[in-house]
Structure formats: structure tokens, C-alpha cells
Write a structure and sequence with these properties.
The complex is a heterodimer of chains A (114) and B (111). Chain A is built from no helices and eleven strands. Chain A has 114 residues and is an all-beta fold. In chain A, strands 2, 4, 5, 6, 9, 10 and 11 form a seven-stranded mixed β-sheet that branches. Chain A has a four-stranded antiparallel β-sheet with strand order 1-3-8-7, with no helix packed on it. Chain A is globular and about 40 Å long. With 111 residues, chain B is mostly beta strands. Helix content of chain B is 0%, strand content 58%. In chain B, a hairpin with a 4-residue loop joins strand 7 and strand 8. Chain B starts with a strand and ends with a strand. Classes of the chains: A mainly beta (114), B mainly beta (111). At the A-B interface, strand 5 and strand 10 of A face strand 4, strand 5 and strand 10 of B.
Chain lengths: 114, 111
């Protein structure tokens, strides 16, 4: 298996622009997670899905952030409009057994909002 | 919210030495996991220890869990330069909520 795939790997955009991050989980994994990593706050869980259904989005910072999972093999995290404080590395992870079990992380998307 | 807290924040050792990192947490857990992150990469799962286990081994890794002290330690024996990375502990509470990560220990192993 190719592991969790994320795209793009790097994104530079200007404040106010829409940003869409993409993730393909490992085939057969029913759980998908979106994390954000910054130096100040560490690794934060934004949202997770089970069988394509959002289970907990309490970590989503504000209404500018939205996530979807239209099918078992694809998820998006969208920021609209983007702000400089959204600059971070965004990770997608998937899990076979549940939110508290082993998670497999993608390589991340490094986002810079100017 | 962050549950686990690693100590030390940074650790520098020479190849061949052992590296010990600690993790403390605040509330009762279901399990605790350790992950490694190389610079610019995603996290890689190392080991999972459940609340009813006290010690677990995987190759050069040894993890202990003391639920009475709400702490865990990760020991890397005979370290190598390739072990240079950040190491994170992550906990799951008994409610089965998703992982809560600490801020990590940055390990530097010099040849």
C-alpha cells in the first residue's frame, strides 16, 4: 500500500484566498483524521471521520475551516478565506481500528499564508 | 487539549548511548502510544501500550507505563544517528476519544 497520500505537499497563498488540502487514506481504513501542527500549539486534532461521517469537529478553529469526506478514499480540508495565522503543517491520518488505536500519517501539507 | 507532556524538550546524545524520554499525562487513559517524526515528515507509529500493561518492547525500544504516576517512558538503546527525530507520546482516554499528543522531545544523536 502507498500509505496515506496528501496533496499538495507545499502551498503558498495570499491572505483571503481559498485553500483546499486533499487526502487519500489507506484503503480499508474507516477512520480519517485531520491535524494541524505548529511550533506554538503542537499537534492539534481538527476533525475526524468514521465511515465518511464527521464524528467530532470540535477542534476546527472557526467557520473558515470545513472538511468533507465524499467517499471512503478521499477527503478535503478547506480554508476560506485563509489568514496568515493558518500557516502550519496539516496532516491527514487514517486508522483501521478506531480513533484511539494506531494511526498512519501522511507526509503533510506545509501551508504558508502571506 | 493536550494531555501528554514530554520531558525533556530536547536531548542530545552520542551514538551508542541510550536515550530516555518521559511522558506525563493528567487523566486516566485507555492506552498510550509513542510516535516518531523526522524533520519535514509525518509521524510514524512506534509502539502502543495499554493501561493494563506495564512494559513493552519492540526492537531497540522499551516502553514502560506507570498508571499510578500517570507517566510513561521511552527508552531507545544503542542509539544511532538515524534515531535523530522528535518523539511524541499520545494518549486515549477511557471515553475512547481520539489521540491527544504532547509537544514532543527533540532527540539529536551525534556520530
Amino acid at each position: 500500500d502507498a500509505g496515506v497520500i496528501q496533496s499538495p505537499r507545499h502551498e503558498v497563498t495570499e491572505m483571503g484566498q481559498e485553500v483546499t488540502l486533499r487526502c487519500k487514506p489507506i484503503s480499508g481504513h474507516d477512520y480519517l483524521f485531520w491535524y494541524r501542527q505548529t511550533m506554538m500549539r503542537g499537534l492539534e486534532l481538527l476533525i475526524y471521520f468514521n465511515n465518511n461521517v464527521p464524528i467530532d469537529d470540535s477542534g476546527m478553529p472557526e467557520d473558515r475551516f470545513s472538511a468533507k469526506m465524499p467517499n471512503a478514499s478521499f477527503s478535503t480540508l478547506k480554508i476560506q478565506p485563509s489568514e496568515p495565522r493558518d500557516s502550519a503543517v496539516y496532516f491527514c491520518a487514517s486508522s483501521l481500528q478506531g480513533p484511539g488505536e494506531t494511526q498512519y500519517f501522511g507526509p503533510g501539507t506545509r501551508l504558508l499564508v502571506l | 487539549s493536550q494531555q501528554g507532556e514530554e520531558d525533556p524538550q530536547a536531548l542530545s546524545i552520542q551514538e551508542g548511548e541510550n536515550a530516555t524520554m518521559n511522558c506525563s499525562y493528567k487523566t486516566s487513559i485507555n492506552n498510550l502510544q509513542w510516535y516518531r517524526q523526522n524533520s519535514g515528515r509525518g509521524l510514524v507509529h512506534l509502539i502502543l501500550i495499554r493501561s493494563n500493561e506495564r512494559e513493552k518492547h519492540s526492537g531497540r525500544l522499551r516502553v514502560t507505563l506507570d498508571t499510578s504516576k500517570k507517566s510513561s517512558s521511552l527508552l531507545i538503546t544503542a542509539s544511532r544517528a538515524a534515531d535523530t527525530a522528535s518523539y511524541f507520546c499520545a494518549t486515549t482516554t477511557n471515553s475512547g476519544y481520539a489521540l491527544n499528543f504532547g509537544k514532543g522531545t527533540s532527540l539529536l544523536v551525534t556520530p
